[in-house]
Amino acid sequence: MRLLLAPMEGLLDFVLRDVLTRVGGADRCVSEFIRVTGTLLPDKVFLRTMPELNNGSRTLAGVPVRAQLLGSDPDSMAANAANLARLGPEGIDLNFGCPAKVVNRHGGGAALLQDPEQIARVVGAVRAAVPAAMPVSAKMRLGFNDTALMTECAQAMQAGGACEIVVHARTKLDGYRPPAYWEMIPRIRESVTVPVVANGEIWTVQEALRCREQSGCSDLMLGRGIVADPGLALAIRAAVEGEQTPAAEVCWSDLVPQVQRFWDMVCEDLEPRQRAGRLKQWLNLLRRRFPEAEQAYQEVRTQTDQREITLWVQALARRQEWAGL
Ligand SMILES: Cc1cc2nc3c(=O)[nH]c(=O)nc-3n(C[C@H](O)[C@H](O)[C@H](O)COP(=O)(O)O)c2cc1C
User: Fold this and answer.
1) Which atom of ligand 1 has the smallest separation from the CA of 166?
2) Ligand 1 centroid to residue 244 C-alpha, Å
3) Could you say which residues are annotated as the site Interacts with tRNA (predicted)?
4) Is this prediction's pTM over 0.90?
């Protein structure tokens, strides 16, 4: 079983990739999408989204990171992929799922799910532009407004040369509304020969097990669920692999040092106006799983001053140390 961390623009960036891969259990990450329009992107754009390119395309914990591109023009995608390839990513993933209006209006992301032939052209152009040994994979939804073309789309990805397909089991129209339709994935799996990875609405070990059963996929991609419960990948491994991977529950006291590290990285690497919001965004998801995060979230919710938040994070860590004595 392979467990992948989902690309999530504005949420699961290099800061959280660092933190979550330190906690452990994930085999690979995918960067947030890098949007390709008509121009050749300078290296700094790739490096800004994926600073792991400066570290052999791995997080500091050593987990490989694949770079994701989004775009609909085969020539432009190929030229940018060739430049990106020179920076040495572990692989290149192509986004065919983004529901954002501005992206879809230009024919990118999920809009391409209406045009399997264009999908094949985009994947084929990227595949031809990068070294043969570099994996090129694709990530799709079940469709745009409905699922009518889902197998054609997956087959187009394979025909273009994708070596793996992640399926977020919802259409663009479904947005992020539960449920995810894991039971649709077997039809896609049976229509291609490359490995298919199941994704969508996996928040707990039980959901991971049900998703594997209904989708028939051994491999899963975890998104918001692992942000809310950083121990989720380890817990899924323990449940699936049994004795090979002993259960190692990640509790709040394990996470407090990670929250501190997260805040330090956010302050060092992100724009001042983004910082407080990023901490609150993570705590907001963590409180789904940890009652202590609810209290922490309420304490920090109205704060905006960086110095005060830093003092609060230090106090949180001290409180946790005392609690452990
Ligand atoms: C805030 C946010 C940003 C996302 N950004 C991306 C992205 O950059 N590329 C991509 O392929 N999918 C993106 N997704 C979709 C996720 O990778 C994933 O497919 C989706 O969240 C379903 O998985 P989950 O229910 O486990 O979160 C994003 C999702 C969210 C919530």
Assistant:
1) 19
2) 30
3) 35, 95, 176, 278, 280, 301
4) yes
